[in-house]
Amino acid sequence: MVTASSLLSPSLRIAYPCMARFPSLLLNCGGVLYPRAMSSNARTFPAVGFEKLPLHMKIEEETVPDYKAERFYPVVLGEIFNSRYRIVAKLGFGTASTVWLCRDLRNLLTLKVCTTQKSANVNNELAVSRHLRSVEGEHPGRGILRLTLDDFQVAGPHGLDFLHQANVVHTGSPDASIFQKIEQTELEHPSARKALSDRTIYVSQPMPITAGLPTLCDFGAARIGETHFGDVMPGVYRAPEVIMGMEWGSKIDIWSIGVMIWDLFEGGRLFHAMKDGVLNDEQHLAEMVSLMGPPPQCFLEKSEKCQQYWDAEGNWIASTPIPLQSFESRECRLEGKDKEQLLCLIRTILCWLPEERPSAQDLIENEFLMQHTLED
What we know:
Blueprint: E1 11-17, E2 80-81, E3 85-93, E4 97-104, E5 107-114, H1 119-134, E6 148-155, E7 161-167, H2 176-188, E8 193-195, E9 200-202, H3 240-243, H4 251-266, E10 274-275, E11 278-279, H5 281-292, H6 297-300, H7 327-330, H8 336-349, H9 360-364, H10 371-375
Parallel strand pairs: 1-7
Antiparallel strand pairs: 1-5, 2-3, 3-4, 4-5, 6-7, 8-9, 10-11
GO molecular function, one term: ATP binding
GO biological process, one term: regulation of mRNA processing
Catalytic activity: L-threonyl-[protein] + ATP = O-phospho-L-threonyl-[protein] + ADP + H(+); L-seryl-[protein] + ATP = O-phospho-L-seryl-[protein] + ADP + H(+)
């Protein structure tokens, strides 16, 4: 359990090795890593030749809701952390972190720099990583996990402690050359940036689209155990039992997979769930009813919150109108058997009762998802 004393606004960092070609464990140097130990990879980053963005223009992490600069550690290209991790390029950002490509001697890693308000998530990620590593036996999914490897602390510019973690590489990583190209691009074509008085905000290097297995990482919001309560999941990907404050389990992941499959394949959101520009549960549920039909009685009996939206017979009573749509009307990319298989898959996954959703094992045997594998 995390105590109050351990949550004194640390800003947090997590690093993930990117390349299977290099050793997956960090080197134990037994002390300070001197500059000459990195001489083979030490690069001088250009001080000119990059686009200087206007100070009034909001970019990258500045665009996230409720952005506060002091929550984000001001990483600088070329900066070295814990005497071993040298920043070589920016890869991305989110509401709670920025992500950077870095080197540990000859290894390329990604460094996730979290904000000052996410210490609980990072502590949880450490705990989940330890739990997953302790599980005995072999599982085909083990190879696509990135788990915590190293953690350390440094002082931040606002007098705070910053926790850093490094995560191990998996054997199914993309070709190492992808990340080497990103590093080389930063050297030859420096990323645009905005120089402020207390920090420089860099534009992320574009990530190329690659083939291969996906990687599971970022376990900050993961939970250990079978059942839980509480609000989890990104807004439009929330399962109905989460929205209604019911007990939930691993089947919420199956739900989010179904929504994600649709969003990625159709190139747009299945659920918008917004009213007046704000995430709205009533709108979200109305959209679910339009696509899935009304929930069964046993679902309505699991939470008193259901009375806000349905009567005792399961009729919709909320003020938000139910949209006139269906999965068939929304799907516009496929025809024939392919369309039939996709709609069957989505209907199988997106159902009110979590116990009726397929398992992960069921999904890897699904004809639509596995058709390219079967063809090969």
